[in-house]
Amino acid sequence: MTWKAQFREALHPSRAIEVEDEREFPRHRGDYRAAAVLVPITDRSEPGVILTQRPDWLRSHAGQVAFPGGKIDETDENAVAAALREAEEEIALPRHLVEVLGHADEYRSGSGYRITPVIGVVPADVPLAPNPEEVAEWFEVPLAILFDRANYAQRHVEWQGQRRSYYDMEWQGRRIWGVTAGIIANLARRLTGAS
Q: What is the DSSP letter of 151?
């Protein structure tokens, strides 16, 4: 089975997993705002996943590693349209070049977002240009490394009087953690059929 076929099968709605996210985190109460991210997988024999590094000067999530994405606007037809628009705005990835394989489980963040991860295949070595207002740089992590659950540590911290769990991974001097690592961990469970 090709890796694309494996993803399509893993994303089928009939495959259920227990989603781990931050919905129990007490920082947010009330309605969640809709958001979407693109999980861009490069179309090569040994595929990789494109991630972004946010600028250090941003007010929120400064310096963090993230997928291209953001809030779903009223003008967006759906989560897929929002993820493609955001990827085009953030890293100049032309939306017409993305082959959408489907979407994964919604991730509810402690900051109040209901995030839909959209899985898309992009041409290998497509030229990208980070928007300096949103992205300091982009980089590619091999798919085999990123979705190997053995490469993640589950960490725990006391925050606002409650124990919080999160996933954390180091790769070539970069720290992938929080919501981004949580989305990856959920998708890895889908790919392996683990709950």
A: G
**Strand runs (DSSP E) across 67-184, as ranges?**
69-71, 99-103, 107-108, 113-123, 137-142, 153-159, 162-171, 174-177
**Global confidence as pTM:** 0.91
Helix axes 3-10, 178-192, angle to 10 degrees: 100
Rounded (10°) CA dihedral 21, 25, 29, 30: 10
Q: Which two tokens mark 39?
A: 């999980």
Q: Where exactly are the structural domains of the chain?
A: 3-142+151-192
Which residue has tokens 């990123």?
146
Per-residue pLDDT of the chain (195 residues; tens, 9 = 90+): 899 999 999 999 888 888 888 777 655 556 889 999 999 999 999 999 999 988 766 565 555 899 999 999 999 999 999 999 999 999 999 999 999 999 999 999 878 889 999 999 999 989 999 999 889 899 999 999 998 888 888 887 776 666 777 788 888 888 898 899 999 999 998 888 755
Reply yes or no on domain 3-142+151-192 having CATH 3.90.79.10.
yes
DSSP state of 96: G
Q: For residue 37, list its beta bridge partners.
A: 69, 117
Alpha-carbon separation of residue 26 from 11, 23, 157, 159 (angstroms): 29, 8, 14, 10
For the record, the structure tokens of 82 come out as 């929002």
